[in-house]
Design goal:
InterPro entries: ANL_N_sf. The chain is 20% helix and 32% strand. The protein is an alpha/beta fold and 314 residues long. The protein has 3 domains: 82 residues, Rossmann fold, CATH 3.40.50.12820; 111 residues, no CATH class; 102 residues, ANL, C-terminal domain (GMP Synthetase, Chain A, domain 3), CATH 3.30.300.30. Strands 1-2-3-4-5-9-8-7-6 form a 9-stranded mixed beta sheet. Strands 14-13-12-15 form a 4-stranded mixed beta sheet, with no helix packed on it. It is globular and about 70 Å long.
Length: 314
């Protein structure tokens, strides 16, 4: 941002939304950046303060981490006005490697996918069949053709000391050509190197995203399968809070422990909060629910089985 000429004001992740809104007003901030959950939290805070709404001068929103749903985008524009919404795609392993701009990519309001422009001179993206994720075979399948959805494998060409080669990112997506609107805005000598990565989200067989972080099911299972936890069944549910549009996380549990054993239950809750990085800034979006029987869980429509992960966030 600084290289682009911006004067950056940094607010820590535990900075209260009301304080952030005050900073936006005091310093006439015109670009709001953060992960998508932070953006939604700030926008909701502004919506509850109509007296200062017209004093906020945000013209651009740049977010990272989870994609924004259609309703979240509508909420942002409803509160902030006709702002331009951008996104940056990156990871700890690869750094930033993709960008989304309303002037370069098409946005389909009926889809929960997000399109990013990538430069094949910096990173090579390959799409492999879903079956190869988690496979223990040494055989490498052929990449899928453009337009077909699968797991994303990434080779980073800008890291020499610790190379990243065909790294399975844990995301699902597909590759596409640039849309006509992007072709008209990009220099001709760069066009052969640019592609569109259509990101569908995390592979929910292995992990889920909440509050800007990726959580592995196997780590959660380690806690909940511990005999001392006494948990018989569990379920993770992502939902959308109203009216804020923030994403909530609920852990539903069927416990075999005596309900009066508060020490064991408190220990379990503390371990869950530590695993899921629950803190003062996001605890209002987290809850645990103890159910009396299997009817308290959401089940599949066919086999009536308890679904391990349920996503109502879109």
């Amino acid at each position: 941002m600084e290289n682009a000429g911006a004067s950056v004001l940094t607010a820590g992740h535990q900075c209260p939304p009301a304080t952030v809104v005050q900073i936006l007003q005091d310093f006439n901030v015109n670009v709001l950046t953060g992960d998508s959950s932070q953006i939604i939290s700030i926008v909701h805070q502004i919506s509850t303060m109509p007296d200062i709404n017209n004093k906020i001068k945000i013209r651009k929103v740049i977010y990272t981490s989870e994609g924004l749903s259609k309703m979240q985008r509508v909420q942002i524009c409803k509160v902030l006005g006709p702002v331009a919404i951008y996104s940056i795609l990156g990871s700890a392993e690869a750094g930033s490697y993709g960008a989304s701009s309303p002037f370069l990519v098409d946005f389909d309001p009926s889809s929960n996918s997000n399109d990013f422009v990538i430069d094949t001179r910096m990173t090579i993206i390959e799409i492999f069949p879903l079956s190869c994720a988690g496979s223990k075979s040494d055989e490498i399948p052929e990449p899928l053709p453009d337009g077909e959805t699968g797991v994303i494998a990434q080779t980073v060409l800008t890291r020499l000391r610790h190379p990243v080669i065909r790294y399975i990112t844990g995301d699902i997506g597909s590759l596409h050509s640039l849309p006509p609107k992007a072709v008209d805005r990009i220099a001709k000598h760069d066009l052969p190197h640019y592609r569109i990565l259509r990101l569908q989200g995390r592979d929910h067989r292995f992990s889920f995203m909440w509050d800007g972080c990726d959580f592995q099911f196997d780590k959660l299972n380690t806690i909940l399968s511990d005999p001392q936890s006494g948990v018989l069944l569990w379920q993770v549910i992502l939902d959308k809070m109203q009216p804020s549009q923030e994403i909530s996380l609920e852990i539903r549990l069927l416990s075999g422990q005596n309900s009066g054993d508060t020490v064991q239950l408190q220990t379990l809750l503390e371990r869950l909060k530590a695993c899921l990085d629950v803190n003062s800034s996001n605890e209002h979006k987290f809850k645990t629910t103890f159910v009396d029987n299997a009817l308290g869980f959401e089940v599949s429509g066919t086999g009536r089985k308890v679904i391990r992960f349920v996503d109502h966030s879109f």
